[in-house]
Amino acid sequence: MTDVGFSATRRLLLQGAGAVALVGLGNLPFGLTPALAAANDKYPEEAFKAKSEADAIKALYGKTAEPSDKVKMDAPEIAENGAVVPISVTTTLPDVTSISFLVSENPVALVASYKIPAGTLPNVANRIKMARTSNVIVVVEAGGKLYSANKEVKVTVGGCGG
Fold first, then answer.
1. pLDDT for 38-78, tens place per residue?
2. How many Å apart are CA 150 and CA 104, to the nearest integer?
3. Helix residue ranges, H only, the chain
4. 97: Cβ–Cβ under 8 A, 6 or more apart, which residues?
5. Do residues 75 and 134 lie in contact, with contact meaning Cβ atoms separated by under 8 Å?
6. Is 84 helix (H, G, I), strand (E, B) or coil?
7. What is the rounded CA–CA span in Å between residue 113 and residue 107?
8. Calpha distance 126→85 (Å, rounded)
9. Beta bridge pairs of residue 152
């Protein structure tokens, strides 16, 4: 019984000492400043309730996006399982501040929206859920403007690929 108590106490002391050492060195395993800044960002509730992609983009950004060949989306032509459709986006645009995924035929168009911190490579990948065959739209906010790319993804019934 004393072995169990000693082991738990020792583990707790080692964890506490490690955390104090990291704080003292200024090297936390996670950044407090970005976490606090994210806590101050308002959740875009209206955008996530919008039924159409145009309404979601307007609620999220307040403006429209223009198509750009500098936004590269990788998505399958046929998704055998609409519950897990892999989508990724990369861009060469400078000063990217956000990337959002939308699906036009989903009951709620906005699937995900990411804030991109300064100095971060603007590459995002996700597995999204699609109700049926639809256009997938990616919107990138860069330098105060909106850029987009879209692709039709066919969702098969039953996962037979046809």
1. 545 677 888 888 899 999 999 999 999 999 999 999 999 99
2. 10
3. 2-25, 32-40, 45-49, 53-61
4. 115, 116, 141, 142
5. no
6. coil
7. 17
8. 8
9. 135
Name the amino acid, one letter, at 122. P
Q: Long-range contacts for 90-94 (Cβ within 8 Å, ≥24 apart)? A: 90/122, 90/123, 91/122, 91/140, 91/142, 91/147, 93/68, 93/122, 93/140, 93/142, 93/143, 93/147, 94/142, 94/143
Token pair of 28, please? 């936390």
pLDDT digits (tens, 9 = 90+) for 65-115: 999 999 999 999 999 889 999 999 999 999 999 999 999 999 999 999 999
Amino acid at 139: V
Contact present, 30 and 36 (Cβ < 8 Å)? no
